């Protein structure tokens, strides 16, 4: 499950709780989506979201064990397809959230876990533990259209996208910085938490209008927004 807290600095902290792999099954996906919608309801000018997790995993992707528990292969594929569809609104909610967003990746972020991280505006990692990893090429799964659009939007280098998607590269913190995927890599959880919170406080101090921020973000990723079904809204906050 997850927990949403709000600090005195107008920062929402969304934490994936527990020491497991934070596999994204319908229950956890629903919990994250509910938390994001709650943050949106409570948002004011200057709000910021930081997403992190407990344990050694940020998220190890969709819950394939839950899919296989359906029994037959057709039923397992049906469950997997269902999770892929359920996860799309999480990406859409993050791309259209009316505040800056930061992912503090303090452990492994694989497949849908990496997608969750990249759906934020800024990503920070630990240097000593954890990788970004798209496992689909290794386990024999294709990649949904909204995920492909997200990668084209968020990873500018074609060679970096190739290595992540076609080689199944397990990218550690320093390499992810060099590839332009993350903002920074830090030696331990304390430094990672400190860096993301400092960045969050700096962003919150600007007290930007969330609706304006959201629409500018959406304008950066037009292809992704079309795939996610996010329309345009004309917002003028000040003259």
TrEMBL record:
One of its GO terms (molecular function) is delta(3)-delta(2)-enoyl-CoA isomerase activity. It holds the Pfam family ECH_1. Pathway: Lipid metabolism; fatty acid beta-oxidation. Keywords: Lipid metabolism. GO terms for cellular component: peroxisome. Its EC number is 5.3.3.8. InterPro entries: ClpP/crotonase-like_dom_sf, Enoyl-CoA_hydra/iso. It catalyses: a (3E)-enoyl-CoA = a 4-saturated (2E)-enoyl-CoA; a (3Z)-enoyl-CoA = a 4-saturated (2E)-enoyl-CoA. GO terms for biological process: fatty acid beta-oxidation. It comes from the Eukaryota. Belongs to the enoyl-CoA hydratase/isomerase family. This is Delta(3)-Delta(2)-enoyl-CoA isomerase. It comes from Populus euphratica (Euphrates poplar). The lineage of its organism: Eukaryota, Viridiplantae, Streptophyta, Embryophyta, Tracheophyta.
